[in-house]
Design goal:
This protein is an all-alpha fold. The protein is about 70% helix and about 0% strand.
Length: about 625
């Protein structure tokens, strides 16, 4: 394989980011709704342009473009958010909700009163330092955890990570390595393009005067089943991406996904209503006629977040106890690291611990009155637990194990009344599972995990720098907020009020409930030990992933897996498993290309509306 041309890759990334980041920023300032360009569209376009110029990109190069571009553009709103949160602190709504104290690291005067529109001034130094530092700490911590997950789950446990294999197959098709994969990818991409055109592009071109010509929504069955199962919620997603995810999941694991989701949101929710637990909740209580989104949100708030935290603790820690040889290997090498020896996983663990203590010290400095001891153990333990469980879920079933409201629950449990803690960038989950998955794809594409880590850090730094440059330019051109950027003049007022109202409302409830966490620990422990005895751990983690997955998505995913295993595998025989990854990636790429184009059209329509003529 030809050596990786990293300088050319970063030149391409810089050019693309210098185009996309200003679009994202301006879209948010005028309220156009443009947030990202699909990475598949980018890699296909760049690959074809390179061929036109007589240069063929390798799979490793298009992989880096695909995964690093979202990393860079993901920093686009960093400095925008600094302005937005500074606006919230000084908005009149803050006083209405009794948030009158301005913490030392916020600007000490309103944005509209500033004569110099620049971040390079003492008044912005503290908040800029906090936001930039926490962003870098979160990235490096996530990469360290991601590498630990890679060593434990990819190298040692050898989980198959079906979606990451599909992505690697798709990238192989993009660069033309396998003609048959190219064929499957191309046909699937055309199907994805047609579907997205009928569901998304045509309505946007018609200025929403024409409805979607194919269904693309969640069909809610909650009102049907609540007559005999009050509290239960169910639906089905008419979404090609959800369906295509199921194509690469083995049928037994997809079934476990569905069972996990149904246990929580159908049977579990029903029991919460029957016992009166949910109907007597201070906020978000169940009422007849509640739709699927309401039921998922508020049942999670009132019960399932605590329960899933307990399940996650068992699912992460018990495997380390039962598989003592892995723990022994990791911790024996930690002692060697202090002597200048040891493996990279041990170094990653020590790096994560050091960064966690740095994060805690920064939190103490920024929020001296906040009871940091309450979240300190979470900042040390929870990121590792979340990484191991979510990465195991992704490796077994495509979906991660997402637990909402953990940060909010800790803040509410602390009884702290300040606004600053709600704005402080507290990263309890730095995304280690996603990095683990990307490292699996990286290896399949010929990129070493160490190189991927190095390039990701460089990409984050590039994103922060470009966010600073373009936010400063746009702010220098016109004041923020102002009617030159309409969203800052009216959307910010509405969103600021809703932000503060949500804080006030949630603070009346309770999310982190120790007795429910204990119940989750017991249930999760029994489940994992049973799976361990029967050597069905992949099915267990698929079931765990389903606990946090909406039943509508779980049902559609299962249908996709059913079609793959019972129909397509019979038509194409053994060849189907070889090329199903290209099909899934092709459907995703076609859908993403048209969706990105539709977003650009909507952005242009909104941008023209802002013009003074």
């Amino acid at each position: 394989m030809r050596s990786l041309r990293s300088s050319a890759v970063f030149l391409i990334l810089f050019i693309l980011s210098a185009i996309i980041i200003p679009l994202i920023l301006y879209s948010n300032l005028i309220g156009a709704g443009f947030s990202q360009i699909n990475a598949w569209l980018i890699v296909i376009a760049v690959s074809e342009i390179a061929l036109w110029l007589g240069k063929r990109l390798t799979r490793s190069e298009v992989f880096l473009i695909q995964v690093l571009l979202p990393v860079i553009t993901g920093q686009a709103l960093l400095f925008y958010n600094i302005l937005y949160y500074s606006y919230i602190v000084w908005s009149p709504f803050s006083k209405e909700f009794s948030f009158t104290k301005i913490t030392w690291w916020f600007p000490q005067e309103p944005l509209v009163a500033l004569n110099i529109r620049s971040f390079i001034q003492p008044i912005f130094a503290p908040i800029v330092a906090i936001f930039v530092t926490t962003s870098l700490i979160s990235t490096v911590s996530g990469l360290a955890l991601g590498y630990i997950g890679y060593e434990l789950l990819v190298v040692k446990e050898k989980l198959d990570f079906p979606m990451q294999v599909a992505v690697a197959d798709g990238l192989s098709a993009v660069v033309g390595e396998d003609p048959v994969k190219v064929k499957f990818f191309s046909i699937s991409a055309i199907i994805g393009i047609l579907y997205a055109t009928l569901t998304t592009l045509i309505p946007i071109l018609a200025m929403r005067q024409v409805p979607a010509l194919l269904p693309i929504f969640t069909y809610d069955l909650t009102l049907v089943i609540e007559h005999f199962l009050p509290g239960a919620t169910l639906g089905i997603d008419f979404n090609l991406l959800t369906f295509s995810s199921g194509l690469v999941i083995p049928i037994k694991r997809a079934l476990c996904l569905l069972i996990g989701s149904l246990l929580v949101y159908v049977i579990g929710n029903h029991l919460l209503v029957v016992t009166g637990y949910w109907t007597s909740s201070p906020i978000g209580r169940w009422m007849p006629g509640s739709n699927i989104f309401y039921c998922i949100r508020w049942s999670s708030f009132n019960f399932w977040t605590s329960f899933n935290i307990g399940v996650a603790l068992s699912a992460a820690l018990i495997p380390l106890i039962l598989k003592r040889e892995v723990v022994k290997e990791v911790f024996s090498t930690i002692a060697q690291v202090t002597k200048g020896k040891g493996g990279y996983a041990s170094r990653a663990l020590l790096l994560f611990i050091a960064l966690s203590f740095l994060n805690i010290m920064l939190l103490v400095l920024a929020l001296p009155e906040f009871p940091v001891y309450l979240v300190a153990c979470f900042m040390l333990l929870w990121p590792l637990v979340s990484t191991l469980v979510s990465a195991s879920s992704i490796g077994a079933s495509v979906y991660s194990f997402n637990i909402p409201y953990v940060k909010e629950g800790l803040i509410i449990a602390s009884k702290y009344k300040g606004l600053d803690v709600w704005i402080y960038p507290l990263y309890l989950d730095p995304g280690g599972a996603g990095y683990t998955a990307n490292m699996k794809t990286a290896v399949l594409c010929g990129v070493k995990p160490g190189d991927y880590i190095k390039y990701t850090v460089l990409a984050v730094i590039m994103g922060i720098a470009l966010s600073f440059i373009f936010t400063t330019i746009l702010w220098y051109m016109h004041p923020i907020p102002s009617w030159s950027y309409p969203a800052t003049a009216y959307n910010w007022q509405i969103s600021a009020y809703n932000f503060l109202l949500n804080i006030s409302w949630m603070s009346r409830g309770e999310i982190i409930k120790p007795h429910i966490i204990l119940l989750g620990v017991i249930v999760g422990g029994i489940g994992y030990i049973t799976a361990y005895i029967f050597k069905k751990e992949a099915l267990f983690f698929s079931l765990v992933a389903g606990l946090s997955l909406a039943p509508s998505a779980a049902l559609t995913t299962f249908i996709g897996s059913l079609v793959s295993s019972q129909l397509m595998s019979r038509i194409y025989k053994d060849k189907w498993r070889e090329y199903v990854g290209s099909v899934t990636s092709g459907l995703t790429a076609g859908w993403g290309a048209v969706s990105s184009f539709a977003s650009i059209i909507a952005f242009i329509q909104r941008g023209v509306w802002v013009l003074p003529y």
